[in-house]
Design a protein that fits this description.
Elements (H helix, E strand, L loop, with lengths): L2 E9 L13 E4 L2 H4 L7 E8 L5 H20 L8 E3 L8 E4 L5 E8 L3 H4 L5 E2 L1 H4 L11 E3 L1 E8 L3 E8 L6 H17 L25 H12 L22 E8 L1 H14 L11 H16 L7 E9 L17 E10 L8 H15 L5 H13 L6 E6 L18 E4 L7 E5 L8 E8 H20 L2
Parallel strand pairs: 6-9, 12-14, 14-16
Antiparallel strand pairs: 1-6, 2-5, 3-10, 3-15, 4-5, 4-8, 7-11, 9-10, 11-17, 12-13, 16-17
Helix pairs in contact: 2-5, 6-10, 7-8, 8-9, 8-11
Amino acid sequence: MGLKVIKITQVSPAADSSRHSADPLILPLTSLDLRWVRSHPTQQVIFYKLPESSREFFHSVILPKLSLSLSLVLRHYFPLAGHLMWNQQDPKPRVVVYSHDTVSLTVAESNADFLFVSGKGLRPQTELRVLVPELSVTCDSTSLYSLQITLFPNQGFCIGLAEHHVLKDGVGSIMFIKAWARICKSLGHGIMTLPSGFIPILDRTLINVRPSLESKILEYTSYFSDEKDGKRTMKPPPVGEICTDLVRITLELTRENVEKLKERAKRESTRSQHELHLSTFVIVNAYVWSCLVKAHGGNKERPFLFMYAADFRNRLDPPVPERYLGNCVVLINCIGYKENNLLGRVGFVSAVEILSDSVKGLGSRGIEALWESYIDGMKQVKPDTHVESVSGSTRMGLYGADFGWGKPVNHEIVSIDRYPAYSMWERRDETGGAEIGLCLRKSEMDTFISLFEYGLEIIASRI
């Protein structure tokens, strides 16, 4: 792929008469934000097919609308323009937003085949990595959001983004994208405002957890520090070189696939149906998880760990509004098992039972107990542990993000090449199924695809 950077600009939030003070806005970090202080940025890319996107049309119509609507939506989401800062005398960092802060926007052009790059088939990970920006990070400060808009002349364009998890979770991330899209699409009708349902809530006092949890999470972040001299830093821990032979694919489970997998779980599990929590989340992740263990070689004695993030907006007391822009997720780890549990024909059903128990347990344990369990579990992870995690959710509704030129043709989390994870989203054109985004070495990918497709053929052939 040949990529040419056209320009790098800075987009300011539109003026807001309610914020006229020269003093910066300070957003303290809650206990649920602290886990993400040194996390690597989440990088995503959203593709829009538009055959009429000539260079002239892009630069005279598309780019100006995207830039103006970005400025307008940042009026409400202005913390995205700020920085995470950590003064050495403070016990924890905080989000600081000055009136002159901006979001970096890179404009680029690619000569690649849009249908290939934006498709769901096998393609090199390097084709996507150039489509997302990075964040600016120093020891005591990091930007929180940056964007890259890339034109594929006469084919379409894509929006790449890098965001720091410390400011918001996945719900807030998708809420911002949909709010931006809504304003952009409304510009043609002279509408420059957002409905109340898209205006974020920034009040950190909504996160009602015991103060003791904060000290435990701070201790946990120190436990995993790579700094030998004891100095605190905003820089993420090193991940090593990204493999050059990684390939990506997006596989789909239809609603019918999910239902048949549920029936298989009911049929083959030794547990009664009321003991199993057979949600789409459990079924999809159990199937992918069991295929991944086998694709990675299936060492019977190797311990494994599976992680997912549970949204606690409706589980806290009082509940947290859906429009809360911050972190309201708890990391959950399924630990204490060996790969032998997921091998063979019973592997999928075993994974269903493990995940079912985990999800059902969310309702009976408090948030503090769950976080303590996560921290204790991570401290016990051995160097040879097979770790997998899932990013995303089938409830986000990202495919509804129409900027005025149609809904996206695809959406990828690019940054899953930096850690053992896969993505999960709703299907573009059907409710009830899921899209699974994977990034693996070619040999592992071939094995995974074979296992994934064979398993679906087996359940499809069963009458």
